[in-house]
Amino acid sequence: MKNLVFSVLGGDDRHLMLFDMLCADGYEVIGYNLPRKQNTISDLNKIIAVSDIIILPLPVTKDGRTLHGSPKTDLCTLFSLCENKAVFAGKVSRDIVKLSKDKNITLIDYFASESMNIMNSIPTAEGALEIAMNNTDFTIFESRCLVAGYGRIGKILASYLSCLGADVFVAARKESDFSYIRTHRYTPVSFKNLSECVQDMDIIFNTVPAIVFDKAVLSNIKPKTLLIDLASTPGGVDYNTAKQLDINVISALSLPGKAAPRTAAKIIKDTIISMI
Q1: Domain 5-112 sits in which CATH superfamily?
Q2: Are 8 and 27 in contact, with CB atoms under 8 Å apart?
Q3: pLDDT for residue 36
Q4: What is the largest CA-CA distance in the chain?
Q5: How do the domains of the chain map onto residue ranges?
Q6: Are the beta carbons of 264 and 120 closer than 8 angstroms?
Q7: Cα distance between residue 235 and residue 167, in whole Å
Q8: Which tens digits make up the pLDDT trace of 58-106?
Q9: Do domains 5-112 and 120-257 have the same CATH topology?
């Protein structure tokens, strides 16, 4: 393993720290134009030729055509150079999978790892709490908080809110989720009753990647309620209606990389090494 040569291409602060962590673990690591880093070069042909493991960003692309990060690199050009190589990338779309197959690339989506998603929920939940605290004039303690969705993020976020003394409500769909919610002494809410529940909330956190906060629900949210949308694009809120109703909505995407890039980098590193 220690003889493997890694290359880190593109990304954000997480990937800069990932570069450092792999170096600290004794691996030979090459970066592609990473700012403020030694052993980084701009010749993609040279990087790919000497690399055993190529690490691409999370997400691998934001526009579907170029590598996420700077400088902008065409994915078709990049993948043409990666033939017969092992490439790790995050949030891989079907189009990217097809492109990798066409180029005979072994493409592994490290974001598909269940353990990574569970661990990633921790900085997401902490980041959500930070946003809530910075955008309210009251404490989490004794506030009424609704968590919409009881998946990985919802479970951890509800736990944190409860520990801070909030009165926690959790919206879910499955009967088994309602049972778990009750065992933690939260108040279970059916999505069918969401419109009624939101009337009394101080802070609402959405984790559902589908429009659950539509006009019918948003119309019942009181003016001073803070709504934080943690769900992946397109999110779970009808933003046009929310704007018309003057509801305070914050879209909070990619929180691990913003709230705790060092922890997020370690999660990526541990996941990739485990997969190897």
Answers
A1: NAD(P)-binding Rossmann-like Domain (3.40.50.720)
A2: no
A3: 67
A4: 60
A5: 5-112, 120-257
A6: yes
A7: 25
A8: 999 988 899 988 778 999 999 999 988 999 999 999 999 998 998 889 9
A9: yes
